[in-house]
Amino acid sequence: MKGTEFAIDVTGVTKRFDEKIVVNAIDLQVRRGEIYGFLGPNGSGKTTFIRMLCGLLTPDAGTGTCLGYDVRTQQADIKRHVGYMTQKFSYYEDLSIRENLDFIARIYAVPDRRAAVERSLVRLGLANRSHQLAGQLSGGWKQRLALAACLIHSPQLLLLDEPTAGVDPKARREFWDELHQLASDGLTVLITTHYMDEAERCHRLAYLAYGNLLARGTLAEVLASAALFTWRVTGPDLRTLATALRGRAGVEQVTAFGNTLHVSGHDAAMLEAAIASVRDARHTWQRIPAGLEDAFIGLMDSAKDNFA
Amino acid sequence: MSSPRLSLRRLWAIVLKEFIQMKRDRVTFGMMVGIPLMQLMMFGFAINSDPRHLPTAVHVADTGPFGRTLVQALRTSDYFEVVHEAESEADTQRLLQLGDVQFVVNIPVDFSRRLLRGERPVVLIEADASDPAATGPALSAVSKLANTVFNRDLAGPLARLHAKDGPVDFRIHAHYNPENITQFNVVPGLMGVVLTMTMVVITALAITRERERGTMENLLATPVRPFEVMVGKILPYIAVGYIQVTLILITAHFLFHVPMLGSLPLLYAVSLLFIAANLAVGITFSTLAQNQLQAVQLAFFFFLPSILLSGFMFPFRGMPHWAQNVGACLPNTHFLRIVRGILLKGNGLAEIAPELWPLLLFVVVAMTVGVKRYRQTLD
Ligand SMILES: Nc1ncnc2c1ncn2[C@@H]1O[C@H](COP(=O)(O)OP(=O)(O)OP(=O)(O)O)[C@@H](O)[C@H]1O
Ligand SMILES: [Mg+2]
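Above: the input entities. Below: the structure tokens describing the complete assembly.
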């Protein structure tokens, strides 16, 4: 391991597919032992960026290091120390759980392979179904197998591409507990997700849209940078109210949450003016701190104006 | 790059994985044993079987009775089915050329008269021998026919006309393919054909399958190197190739009684080179193809000339020059000669050497292209 503070330290990373810029000059620093959340709408370039980090794609521009190795020239070294979990399940469906783990362990030349496979089966609770074919596993179990497989060579950096898509809440929570455990042991994790509760469990976040990094930092920093003001309203006939609010100057988002409505905008004064124009006694209005989801949707909407 | 060397451990990991996958894929596994057997039965027996009722045209210029007797004899024989009585010679030539008939029997003008005079008149049998395996048995039946057909007619005082070699002189003129391919030629040739077909197809799928199922992304993210993937995927199928070779040899010996004059260990050793050549082609194809269907199509693209231009289907020397040149580039052409040489002529290493180095060259070239084409990244 080369002694740098950052597990990932890249600047200006760019990728084009047929002249279409998919990842646009992204700078990213991830500290060792940190869980770094990577968020963004579909097609924003998250997977493409991760593939460049682990040497699967060559960046068109940009420089930097991953675990101290140059991302452009030392891809072979990076591969040995990185665990990459692809977005789509990419282990062998016609191999059993144990055979898959064994294969990966052999490829990475894991010392004391048998024991390592056994340990990872036990830790992930897969020991009693180790002979089941991977293709017969349910989605959630496939995810667990994939995590077990990409941890088997004790990597220093985990790149997880939507590891919890389609996983039930309890399993997700366990998964995150496990991640925090690994991180406290010094493992660095870069994880993409579409779940806001997971984003909140990350040490740091980055938000990507249309290939551009729109915000990054801790949860509080991202929220602050979004500079979004949100009101919550409760009362009767919220649908009519929502219709009345939409399209008014200063109102950027109107979202229904069960029996409440969230109304947000970037300009506090204009937002309040808009609210005042529809306000009546039947409804209760309350200022609340903007949520991460509101913040991201706000970022995405403004990004659309800038880049689309 | 800090691990540019081949790692036997990683190579072995791939080999084991391929074996497990092979074991799980029952259909393909069945194919690997089924195809050689099926082809042996089809090609072997199609040729071994004694084709009868072959369409025949007769052109009878004779006005006497014996011409008709001969035609009648042909009609009652199993081998010939007289489908046409031609008016002119041009007529018969056309039928032959179109492939409408396999034989034309020409009975000359003064056939009866000359027969009675004991002059052994000539009956010309023209055969479409482009598939000599089909015409062979029929033609040998003709000579037997000649001795017996006029037994009844040439009784009593005419019995003196029974010449030692029959009262009629049958002349056979084989058209289109003067070279005789016998089943001894075909069955050893099948070895190359079967190996080409299965080895290329199955390995052509090997890497495309990984790409199609998405497992390639994972494999690429590991430290495993292209050469290790290639060789690791090839090795298990060499074992399969040897199973096929053995199957074919057993069948050739016990079912078709193909002579085996040369050294079998030599044959097995040379087979390794040929199997490797086909596997390398398959692997190269799988790096070119986008999906499994394309891989199979590419494999077929290679398979056709390997059958048609290698000397398996048509005599190599009978092919036009360009076809011979193409054929010379195909591993099957050389392997065919080696197998036939070893089995039928008892050739040793010295005799087959001129066919060995083209094979070797082919393996090296195909492997190099394959490894070069194997993309180490996804772009
Ligand atoms: N190999 C490729 N060739 C061409 N275009 C590609 C390729 N891979 C990705 N793209 C394009 O790049 C863009 C970003 O894709 P990417 O998979 O990185 O998005 P993502 O952020 O991971 O999305 P999601 O949340 O849906 O997984 C998309 O528009 C996609 O169509
Ligand atoms: Mg993605």
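Note for the figure: The pocket of adenosine-5'-triphosphate (ligand 1) is lined by residues A 17, 22, 40, 42-48, 87 (CB under 6 Å).
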